[in-house]
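Input C-alpha cells:
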C-alpha cells in the first residue's frame, strides 16, 4: 500500500507541475510527463521482476510449459506499453496517433498470442 501511495504522490506532483508549466512552456510540460512516467516505471521494475519470477516458479511447479506462459506475458507487456504510448499521444493532443497506437497494440497482442491459439487448436484436434 505504501508503494502505491508513493507512486500516486509522485504522479500527482508531476501532474500539478505539468499543469503549471503547460501555460508557459507546453513542450517542457510534455517532457516532464514523459520523465515522470519513465520514473514510475523504473520504480516499479523491481515489483514486475518479482511477479515474473513468481510466474516462472508457478509454471515449474505446475509443470506448465514456458511456451504457454510466454505469450501471456508478452501480451500483458504489449498492453502496458501501448496504453502508456497512447496516453502520451493523447496528452500531446495527438488523438489520431493515439488511436493508431492502440490499433497497432491490439494487432501485436493478437500476433503474440498466436502460438497459444495454435497450441489450443492442436489440443482440440487431438481430442477429436
Amino acid at each position: 500500500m505504501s508503494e502505491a501511495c508513493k507512486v500516486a504522490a509522485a504522479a500527482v506532483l508531476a501532474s500539478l507541475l505539468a499543469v503549471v508549466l503547460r501555460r508557459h512552456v507546453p513542450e517542457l510540460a510534455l517532457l516532464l510527463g514523459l520523465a515522470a512516467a519513465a520514473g514510475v516505471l523504473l520504480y516499479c521494475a523491481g515489483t514486475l521482476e518479482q511477479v515474473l519470477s513468481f510466474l516462472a516458479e508457478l509454471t515449474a511447479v505446475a509443470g506448465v510449459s514456458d511456451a504457454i506462459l510466454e505469450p501471456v506475458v508478452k501480451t500483458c507487456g504489449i498492453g502496458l506499453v501501448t496504453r502508456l504510448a497512447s496516453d502520451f499521444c493523447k496528452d500531446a493532443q495527438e488523438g489520431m496517433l493515439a488511436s493508431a497506437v492502440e490499433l497497432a497494440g491490439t494487432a501485436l497482442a493478437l500476433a503474440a498470442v498466436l502460438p497459444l491459439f495454435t497450441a489450443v487448436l492442436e489440443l482440440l484436434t487431438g481430442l477429436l
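The chain has four helices and no strands. Residues 1 and 44 are 13 Å apart (CA to CA).
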